[in-house]
Design goal:
This protein is mainly beta. It has a single domain, classed as UDP N-Acetylglucosamine Acyltransferase, domain 1, CATH 2.160.10.10. The chain is built from 2 helices and 24 strands. The radius of gyration is 17 Å and the shape is globular.
Length: 195
């Protein structure tokens, strides 16, 4: 019976209040009943974390949240076929979107401001005779190291590593690696100064 119930929750979202209650008690954290959570058995949450009205899809290899992680209203975490791991004391503002197809690794004390997007995959588009959507995708992954601040409305693309202690200015599109303790900004993001 337990396996049947587990399978049912994996295939269809259970009632929000039951999933929130289960996760809150299981992991000693606070999960809002208004959160939409798919595959809750592939989600691990550190003690003291707060998950507000957001959407979490822990498919693939699942999602791991550290301790005291804050996820604000409207955010989306979707591991797709990959995984998402988030370190302790990190916070994600409203409407942050993280896709983990190629694995998204986010360190400790990371702050990602509202409306930013982290996409750990990219469409292939070299064949003009085939629809882009049918050409598949790459999934190299993204690493955001400890103590990084990502301003609002930023986009971080597949294959990027953002070094420890860096700042990404609001509105930047990060397409290349960022050295530790750097401030970057612009489209595409370029080095501005050292911290």
């Amino acid at each position: 019976m337990w396996q049947r119930l587990k399978r049912r929750f994996e295939l269809t979202p259970g009632p929000g209040f039951l999933v929130a209650l289960y996760l809150s008690l299981r992991w000693h954290c606070r999960v809002s009943p208004a959160a939409t959570i798919r595959f809750p058995f592939r989600l691990s949450i550190g003690r003291g974390s707060r998950i507000n009205r957001c959407s979490i899809v822990a498919s693939g290899e699942g999602i791991q949240l550290g301790e005291f992680v804050d996820i604000f209203d409207g955010s989306v975490l979707n591991s797709l076929e990959g995984r998402i791991s988030i370190g302790d004391h990190s916070a994600f503002g409203p409407y942050v979107t993280i896709y983990g197809m190629g694995a998204a690794s986010i360190g400790k004390y990371v702050a990602i401001a509202a409306h930013s997007t982290v996409v750990a995959s990219n469409h292939k588009f070299s064949d003009r005779e085939t629809f882009i959507r049918l050409q598949g995708s790459t999934a190299r992954g993204i690493a955001i190291e400890d103590d990084v601040w990502v301003g609002s409305n930023c986009v971080i693309l597949d294959g990027v590593t953002i070094g420890k202690g860096s700042v990404v200015a609001a509105g930047a599109v990060v397409t290349a690696n960022v050295a530790p303790n750097s401030v970057v900004g612009g489209v595409p993001a370029r080095f501005i100064k050292e911290r």
